Fold this sequence. Notes:
Blueprint: H1 2-19, H2 25-28, E1 44-45, H3 54-62, H4 65-112, H5 116-140, H6 150-157, E2 160-161, H7 168-183, H8 191-206, E3 209-210, E4 215-216, H9 226-245, H10 248-259, H11 265-293, H12 319-351, H13 356-376, E5 384-385, E6 417-418, H14 420-425, H15 429-433
Amino acid sequence: MLSNRFQNGMETARLVWSRLPRSDEGDLDGVGLLSTTSNRNCVESLDYEVIENYAYREEQAQRGKLFVGYNVGMKWFFALLIGIGSGFAAVFINISVENFAGWKFSLTFNIIQKSYLAGCLIYILINLALVFSSVYIITQFAPAAAGSGIPEIKGYLNGIDIPGILLLRTLIGKISGSIGSVGGGLALGKEGPLVHTGACIASLLGQGGSTKYHISSRWLQGFKSDRDRRDLVTCGCAAGVAAAFRAPVGGVLFALEEVTSWWRSQLMWRVFFTSAIVAVVVRAAMGWCKSGNCGHFGSGGFIIWDISGGQEDYSFEELLPMAVIGVIGGLLGALFNQLTIYVTRWRRNYLHKKGNRVKIYEACLISVITSVISFGLPLLRKCSPCPDSDPDSEIECPRAPGMYGNYVNFYCNKEKEYNDLATIFFNTQVSRIF
């Protein structure tokens, strides 16, 4: 009897303590509620469990049906806002990358008409400026935005509170870093950062904005517990995948299979609703870009999976070459992963301990090497004659300088020729596929 009373007293005290306002609430700005200003760099755990003791059940009993309906409606409203915000963020990143790349390619091709050496220097300098701007912002302003962000979000959704990963400055750094690195020609993608971007948007909406930068709204501050914020961040992760690949079901499966270890049916419907909203926003942006309102690259950089003109059947003789290619690809992939582990350990243990300046030098050096390779390899490749095009087709061979698509005329002696390697390197990542 005495032990039961002592246990109930401890649970009641814990519940009362959890409701006390934090003195450092204004400085958290997206960090878990268990962090403290005295030890902000320490990684702590998040409490996703609800203690269903007597006080909790009594409080739930006092709430009427109106409050329950309001709570459920607000969760769906937040799912709508997360989908709209993530969709607009993806549209902004795609259009910015496409236009930066379009200006870069257009200027480069205009200069190489007079001198290939001058065009190479301009191409290297533009890429270097874009990469330098992104790495400077990351190292000096938002260090938590480095990398894809998916491992950090996985850790957060599984109970690990990593300081700084959901801040407003992290969101700004993630967006600007994606634009600079991808637009600068690095072998990177914006799909992983979009997951982190969606999670940041969801977290900021859940806490009503950023209190540190005085950009907040009290009427949005409806969900303060760790479990409610976890659900919002889960919706944001799915929204990022849906924005990257225009796949609502893919966003739901990614959130279910990859990033979370706890799930329920109510959350699944909200996640799917958020992903569907993102798909609608991206689809509307694609229609707007097709009319030529997105700048140099009319497609807007959105992935459009169209297999209507593909091969519908295969022959038995194709199975063996496909198996051989699969084995070779698997071995090369394993070798690549192992080399990546070694290089990452060396960079972490020796290179990055020397400060942020070394990180900036490293990124700039990689940018210069990448630019030299992408500009120099097409010079070693012979040009191919343009195929006979369909008069009704919109495909033009060769393409006009600075425009996206196939058949890029680069270092060719004849007008009706194209360089296949230049077609790969002098296009954005999405335009290379199509």
